[in-house]
Amino acid sequence: KGGAMHPSVLKQFDAVIWNNVSGDVLTLTQRKAFRSFVEGGGGFVGIHGSAGDPVYFWDWYPDTLIGARFIGHPMAPQFQDAKIVVESHPAGLGKALAPGWTMNDEWYSFAKSARLNGANVIATLDEKSYNPGGSRFGNQPLAMGDDHPIAWTRCVGKGRSFYSAIGHRPETYGDSKHQELLRQAILWAATRTTAGCVPAA
């Protein structure tokens, strides 16, 4: 609930998790409190739809906190098997999941790679393993090429941000590898560390 985005509430927590939160959900005062929490050393974990809006009302959120802008996902079919490739991350996130795994989900594409905006990428999609197709919100191609990040971390001030585009289908939360990725991400985001955290561009 947006009302939780108040300094007196946020100071009780090490990290905030947005599980498929989308839309313009915070007032200006709540935005300020949330941003201050993260930049002051708090952690953020964003899952799937938390970066899945075609229109943004708060530039800091996609450009700084997430680090990439969503442009769409396949619709024909919407859910596909795809290969997730795990990369070497400075904080070791995902290391136990290497070299990767295959799962079925709704696969997001972004206007550009989060890597180009200062992110440390944990995992990418192998676009040869599924059909990116056209956008749900238009007909632009969704293929990102050889660099299609799907999970990554960033520094935001003194805080830590993790985002994973995995997580549309309920079944993904029963996948042991996805569970482990989220477990590692939550622990990392909730720990006041700069390990594996690249300052925002």
Report on this structure:
It contains 4 helices and 9 strands. The strands form 2 sheets. A 7-stranded mixed sheet has the order 1-2-9-8-7-4-5, sandwiched between helices. It has a two-stranded antiparallel sheet with strand order 3-6. The protein has helices at residues 7-10, 28-39, 60-66, 176-189, and strands at residues 15-19, 43-47, 70-72, 80-86, 100-105, 109-110, 120-126, 149-156, 159-164. The radius of gyration is 16 Å and the shape is globular. The longest helix is centred in the C-terminal third of the chain and has 14 residues, at 176-189.
**Strand/helix succession:** HEHEHEEEEEEEH
Low-pLDDT segments, ≥5 res: none
Dominant shape: globular
- Please give the radius of gyration in angstroms: 16 Å
In DSSP terms (H or I, runs of 4 or more residues), the helix count works out at: 4
Largest sheet: 7 strands, mixed
Name the structural class. alpha+beta
Q: Helix content range of the residues, please? A: 10-25%
Strand content: 15-25%
